[in-house]
Amino acid sequence: MTHVEVLVEDDRWKSINFEDLVTKAFYETLKKLGYSKTDYFISVLGCNDKKMRKLNLMFRSKDTSTNVLSWPSRERLRVVEGDHPKPLDRTLDAELGDIALAYETCLQEATQYNTNFASYVQHLTIHGILHLVGYDHSSDPDATLMEDLESQILGNLSLKAHTKR
Q1: Using CA atoms, how far apart are residues 98 and 83, in angstroms rounded to an integer?
Q2: SS3 of the chain
Q3: Which residues lie across from 111 on neighbouring strands?
Q4: Residue 114 near residue 163, CB atoms below 8 Å
């Protein structure tokens, strides 16, 4: 069984070995959270801004592209603000959900933040995976928890966190 199903709709993603990057991000994120990489799976779409704009409009009513979108297979949010979400259940949660990344927006942001494109894509993939398992950044305590996890996971991959601040 493939634990990360990758669909590349824009061939430019192949220049950074997209499938390998997102697979490593997935395995490292599950490891950090204490889950077996063989019990869960996700789907990841590498698309362009035109496709992402359509997805963002369809699912979030926002007529613009964005860097990453995630669709959890079911709600897994935390009970207490700033706390970790409920633990995953291997039976109910094997399919974590789907993630999409937009090439042009990711490249533009990596350039804007003066960071390596491939590592920025891994950061966004980790961010998307954390959303799939129930993390959010809708409040300051939730954002701090999620950003700390992202930094730790990136550190385990020998990468540095990329922030807009």
Answers
A1: 23
A2: CCCEEEEECCHHHHHHCHHHHHHHHHHHHHHHHCCCCCCCEEEEEEECHHHHHHHHHHHHCCCCCCCEEEEECCCCCCCCCCCCCCCCCCCCCCEEEEEEEEHHHHHHHHHHCCCCHHHHHHHHHHHHHHHHCCCCCCCHHHHHHHHHHHHHHHHHCCCCCCCCC
A3: none
A4: no
Q: Give the per-residue pLDDT at 81.
A: 82
Alpha carbon of 1 to those of 4, 22, 66, 92: distances in Å?
A: 9, 16, 30, 17
Over 90: is that where the pLDDT of 160 sits? no
Q: Dig out the tokens for 65 from the structure.
A: 């592209």
Mean pLDDT lowest among 12-16, 75-79, 109-113: 75-79
Provide the whole-model pTM. 0.93
Long-range own/partner contacts, residues 138-142 (CB < 8 A, 24 or more apart): 139/81, 139/82, 141/81, 141/82, 142/78, 142/81, 142/82
What integer pLDDT is reported at residue 162 of this predicted model?
64
Other beta carbons within 10 Å of 29: 28
pLDDT band at 80 (very low <50, low <70, confident <90, very high): confident
